[in-house]
Specification:
The chain is mostly helical. It contains five helices and no strands.
Amino acid sequence: MKVNPDIKKTLYAIGNESVKLANTPSEQYKYTRRMMKIYDSSLSDEERIFLWQTVMEMIHYRSIVTDHDNILMIYNMKFRNMMLLFFFAVLTVLLIGVVFKTNEHLNGIVDIFGNLFRMISLGD
């Protein structure tokens, strides 16, 4: 395919200018260079492959939240936390009811369990 030399030069100049303008050193430039040097010099091929697979998975999933296994794990943790909070809230309400004797039915249930514990302790 033939390309007009003027267009080729123009595109080459645009590319150089784009690289020059976009090539601003970041805050972690030195750190990134050191990491790349370590990657090139001291890692074996298997370690490089492992790192690249990890990076490619991160790029593929874009973030940890979109991974299906992680979503399920996060949901399970959230569900467990909510159930634990709910359990503690119910337990607190029941304990307050028992301590201050606010409900006759609750007092009856506590008396039944108290009698059961007394019977078990007498049997031993």
